Amino acid sequence: MFVIFKRKYLILCICVILCAFAALSVTYGVKAAAADGGRVVVVDAGHGGRDGGVTGKVTGVRESDLNLKYAFLLKASLEKQGFKVIMTRTTEAGLYDAAAALSEESRKSQDMKRRKEIILNSKPACVISLHMNFFSQSSPRGAQVFYNASNPESKKLSAAIQNKLNIVNGEYAGKKISNLPGDYYMIKCTDYSSVIIECGFLSNADDERLLLNEAYQSKLIYEITNGVLVYCFR
Fold this sequence. Notes:
Layout: H1 2-35, E1 40-45, H2 63-80, E2 84-87, H3 104-122, E3 126-133, E4 144-147, H4 152-172, E5 180-181, H5 185-188, E6 194-201, H6 205-211, H7 214-232
Parallel strand pairs: 1-2, 1-3, 3-6, 4-5
Antiparallel strand pairs: 4-6
Helix pairs in contact: 2-7, 4-7
């Protein structure tokens, strides 16, 4: 009986060790694969400079400022998972020559062209463009992902991220939201898998309050990161 018990105990210990080693290998493997083999993610903070985007209905917060904050948070989160992150902008300024006497149309064109150049030079696994939404009515709320309908990989990326964001949408908005095709420059200017994430509605007082809350920001960034992981390592 004692010999049998020892043998069973030994087998159990070996199984536990093997399971722990397998879990560690998977975790290390994800990070190693992300760091080696072109696992680059471009994080685009929408708007910037004279283009502040929309503004919060209650606080007047500028979309461009929130986009940049979320971009830095996402960068840090993705880097913890081993990704190399390239940001299109890292300051409040837009990507145009602020010293030149440019028309609004020329500024926008120059800004978009430079964002495209960053993407092309980075050769990323995917592109995440962060924005805040706004609607004429105050009722719509929640985070929604848009993709390029002519790019199957863009749709897969959007589905992976939207699926994760719906965990937060369900908890705070009480509903799930569908990822949708969109006709936006940032998701159509290259062939790389690109999405636009509208993190919430600044036209909705509840969303605006949450979007300014650090705990909520962490939840959104956590789920966006999980969506990227699902897409890149599916």
